Amino acid sequence: MTDSLIATRLHEPRLQFDYENREAVSSNPFFGLKDFGPFDATERRHAGVKPTPAVIVGRADQPNEIARVITALSAKRLGRLHDVFNLEFADTIRVPASTPREEAATYRRAIDEWFDEAPYRREVEIAVVLHADESQYRGASPYYASKAAFMRRGVPTQSITHENIAPSNMSNFRNYYVANILTACYAKIGGVPWVVQASTRDRPEITVGVACTAVVTASDVERYVGISTIFRENGAFALWDITPPEQDWEKYQAQLEASVLRAIQTYEARENKQVSRVACHVSGKRAGQRETEAIASALAKFPGRTITADIIHVTDDASL
pTM for the complete prediction? Predict the structure, then answer.
C-alpha cells in the first residue's frame, strides 16, 4: 500500500495598516509599514508623538558592538513607521566580562545596580540586550535573566546576538534584521504595527509566548520562568506577565502553570470574552514534559469548557 500526503498551500495573510486608510493593505509587512505606517498611527498622533527612550545592555569589553547597534537602530529605515516611532538611547549598561556560566548572573546584577542608582531610569520604555548565541550558555541565558530583571520593573526587552552584528554581517543586519527588530520593539511597547485583515476559522484566538532560563550564582541556580506574552488573534499585542524565580524543577513547573493560567484569565477579564483555542510558543528551550504538563494543567482549570492548545517551539535563536 502506498502512503500519500495531501497538503494545502497557505497564502500569505492580508495585513491592515493605518486604521483610517482603507487602502492601507499589504501582504508584505516591511513595505506595509514603510508605505502606510502602523495600524494605530492616528491614535499615537492624537496622544502626541515623542521618541521612545531606550537603554542598551552589552559587555564592557565590546564597546564597538554597542555603538554599531545604537547607530543602526537609530536610523530611520521604515518610512511612515517613523512618523510615530523612533528609539532614543538614553543610557548604556556596560556589563563586566565573565565566563559563559556566570554571564547570566553578571547581566542581572549590572541591571539591578543600574536601576538602584537613580529612580528616573524607570522611565525607560524598552531595553536592547546584546549577548552571544544561546547555544553557548546551555540554558543559563543572560538574555532571559536580563528580561526577568527588566520586566519586574515594567520594561520589555529586545534580544540581539553578537553573531548578528559582527562586522562581516553588518550589511545584512542593517538591511534585514533592523526592520524586524524595530517592528518587535514597537509591538513590545504596546504599539500595533498591523492586524490580520480577515479572520480564519478555527485559528487560535490568542498566542501565548513562554520562556525560561537559568541564572547561575556562586551557591545555587535560580530558574526564571513564566515570562508570558499574549497577542490577539489578529496579531495585536495584548499583555505580558512575569513570575518570580524558583530554585527547583517542581516549583518551575508550578510557576509556569500559574503564569499561563493568569495570563489567559487576565486576557479574558480585560477583553470580556472566553477563548477556546490558544497557541503556545516556547522559546529558550524545546518544550518538554514539564512545559506540556504545565500548559495542559493550566487549560484544565477553566471549568465547564475545553481550551485546546498548539504547542510550538519557535527557534533556537532568541534574536529573531
Answer: 0.70
